[in-house]
Amino acid sequence: MKTSRYILLISMLLALPLLAVAGENDKKETKDKSNIADMFSINGIGVSADIFGYVYSLIDDYTSGEVAVELNLGNRFYPIAEIGLGWCDAIDETTSIRYKTRAPYYRVGINYNFMTNEKKPNPKNYVYALARFGWSSFNYDVETPPVTDPVWGGSTALKLNDVKGSCSWAEFGVGVKVKIAKGFHMGWSIRYKTRISEKQGNNSRMWYIPGFGINKGTCFGGTYNLIYEIPFKK
Amino acid sequence: MRMSAKIKCIVCFLFAILPFTACEDGYDCSIENVAYDRIGFYCVSDENVESKYKFPEALTVSLMVNGRDSIVVNHITDTDNLLLPMSYTSDCDTVVFHYEGDFTDTLYIGHENIPFYISMECGTVMYHRITGVKYTDSFIDSAIVANEHVKFDYNENIKVYFID
Fold first, then answer.
1. I need a surface site. Which of A135, A192, A217, B122 has the fewest CB within 10 A?
2. Which CATH architecture has domain A2-92+99-139+165-231?
């Protein structure tokens, strides 16, 4: 089951560039080798920070912050690596259960720019589709009020410290980047996340997963990025 | 910069499906909040064939936990299994079978109690792990642990073999 999920994920990661290449082939069957080399030439490198998480932390008990490095390949493909820190310290008002964690997470993937222009090395605006593979391995704490025996009476409290858990997931979505100053872009992305695998801790389920969010089978996420790009071509 | 019709279609498709792709809730807060120990009644024929055993006469079952005695079922007939609530704090529950004619058998169920945190919304539940069974032998031939984990499922946990 897990193997088939990985195959599906890899297929989808590969699908975007293949789709683009196929589209190009339809129109430009006579494209020569130099054009293909241009398509994958390194035009620049970009570093970005997600500021959405820091703003979100003002309104909720859990959030994350991340930085990323991306390569610009021919203004079309942007392989990207993201590293972030997710944290949560939440107490449920109804059940009085406290869940706490703070751990790093990692993602790798690719952006595909629809508004590409190979002739101009540093495009101002982007509209892109994205695919990511993310994972996190972390410890969490759970404190619960006493569990009361409804038949015989008596109660037992549950306190779990440093429970180990891990999760991997895939993300697909779209995003926009707009130039705001020389070298600087701002942008956002909307991401649909689907869990691939999870390793539960003893006597508990993970409630919040750094980088993924609330531990549901699927969910949405978003980023709002400030990006600085260093062009390799003028 | 220009966008081909094909790419426009892909972008439109992505935007169109996103709102309809509802988040799946990974939690299923169980309506039940007590994990029951399921005991099945069996007998073995002379040909060594195992079959379900239904009491031909009225059966009363009481449960003793932490020194408290409580009747769980009273004068039932034609039954071949029992569902028993397990104690959250004791490590041994005592089940007493009262047969007609003042005969009794006692089944001792040793268990661990395992609090399990499900989620912030669903709270914590108690599971159990059966560590062993002992019994008296007025009408009980033997008893075994069929499935040591007592959770919110319909698995039979203990098999009690009666003398037919």
1. A217
2. Beta Barrel (2.40)
